[in-house]
Amino acid sequence: MKEFDKAIITKNGNELIAEAIAGKKIEFTRLITGCGIYGESEELECAAALKEEKQEFPFSVNEKISENGVLLTAVISNVGLEAGYRLTEIGIGGKLQDSEEEILYAINITGEEKAYFLPPYNGLEATEIELSCYITIKQDAELKMALGDVVDMMLNELRKENARAITAEKELKGSLNILTENLAEEITRATTAEEELAGSLNALTESLTEAVTRATAAEEELKGNLTELMESLTEEVTRATTAEEELEGSLTALTESLTEEVTRATTAEEELAGRLTALTESLTEEVARATVAEEELEGSLTALTESLTEEVTRATATEEELEGSLTALTESLTEEVTRATATEEELEGNLTALTESLTEEVTRATTTEEELEGNLTALTESLTEEVARATAAEEELNNRIDFILRNKEILNFNENNECVIEDERITADSLADVYFTSDTISIATDAVITVETYSGNVKLSCQNAPAGAIKASIKIKVV
Fold first, then answer.
1. How many DSSP H helices and E strands does the chain contain?
2. Each residue of 88-100: b (16+ CB within 10 Å) or e?
């Protein structure tokens, strides 16, 4: 590859750049060649045309390959050239997109001794030179022109794009690693929270167990008190029964004593009757004595009756006292049963309150666990979205990488003069640049070839049947 001695953007070209920076679009129209000779002191910036123009050629490639960079490619040919000349000056024509006025955008010169000689066309084989220009459109615009195979320049640009893609992929992987570490920390915090919740539940269970144990102990104590009360009641009933038996014994003894007294009275009466019978004859004498004796007997009977009445009164009073004791014992027992019932109800109330408190604690624990599960679900969804976005970004990055579909290979056209090349990376919006080799470009030009991209393939169609084999390089730019 050879480079020219000087590659200068003219004043008119700089004015065109200013228009482009202001928002207007530049259109590069043609490549102009000539054989003019320049002195070292000449100001190329002021050039408005080539000194000695010989030929002009269209640009086969006119592509924006970076934010401020444009790649122009043209093939210089001697087809139709009657007299050869040395290629000492090359110009690039340009204009604003909506303007008809063309200006000399840039000029490139070299010495006559270093210049290519383009021979006249001999009618058999054409001489072709592929020329590439890389132009930056900005304040400090640069122009670099080179003669040779444009594929080399394209491959260099592609390598740079691949390097940038690899760097972006590494940065994306770094972001994914950071995201993974953040997720691990969130899972660790969630696990810790779950363990703390389990500890709280264990403590609550232990507290409930202690409360149930205390309730069981209280119930057993109550049962013990009831047992003691029943034993005390049994003892009181036993004592009452014993007192009743003693009362019955006393009544029996009293009855027996009364019977004995009656028996003695009867005996005495019989003795008296005997004496009366014996003393009938001496009744008169003994009447006074009998009357006195009868009065004494009546007095004894009265005293005996009074004594019997007192014994009956005492027995009645004892029975009433016994009944009073039984009544008091019954009331005491009723009070004890009432107190036991109240204690049992209070215990049941405490158990109910404890059950409600436990239910609330379990509800709160369940709510906390559900919230924790909700947070984990939200975190998982957020991670899934981040991974999806990262995957989409990576796929988009991969899709943006340009690639060479064919490299100086023969294109196979079918009977319909169509050549279809399939590749799953190609989309309907992809851009395809076709660069025909110098030995087959004339055949391709005569065939009038058009290019269209579809999803999964690119199709080249010939307006005229090719006169021979056509070789080309195809670059695909995925949009």
1. 4, 17
2. bbbbbbbbbeeee
Structure tokens at 333: 């027992």
What is the length of the chain?
A: 479
Token reading at 183: 């997720």
Residue 6, classed as helix, strand or coil, is strand
Are 104 and 85 within 8 A, CB to CB?
Answer: no
Instruction: Please give the Cα distance from 418 to 449 (Å, whole number).
Output: 9
> What does pTM read for this prediction?
0.35
Q: 301-328 burial, b if ≥16 CB within 10 A, otherwise e?
A: eeeeeeeeeebeeeeeebeeeeeeeeee
Q: Where are the beta strands (DSSP E) in 307-417?
A: 403-411
What is the maximum span of the chain, computed from C-alpha positions, in angstroms?
A: 219
Question: Crossing angle of helices 150-278/283-399, nearest 10°?
Answer: 180
Quick: pLDDT tens for 15-49.
999 998 888 899 999 999 999 999 888 899 999 99
- 403-411 sheet: strands from edge to edge: 403-411, 470-477, 431-436
List b or e across 422-439, with b for residues whose CB sees 16 or more CB atoms inside 10 angstroms: eeeebeeebebbbbbbbe
Euclidean distance between CA atoms 95 and 102, whole angstroms: 5
Reference 400, options 185, 169, 174, 173; nearest CA is 169
d(CA 405, CA 238) in angstroms, rounded, equals 119
Q: What is the pLDDT of residues 79-112, one digit of tens each?
A: 999 999 999 999 999 999 889 999 999 999 998 8
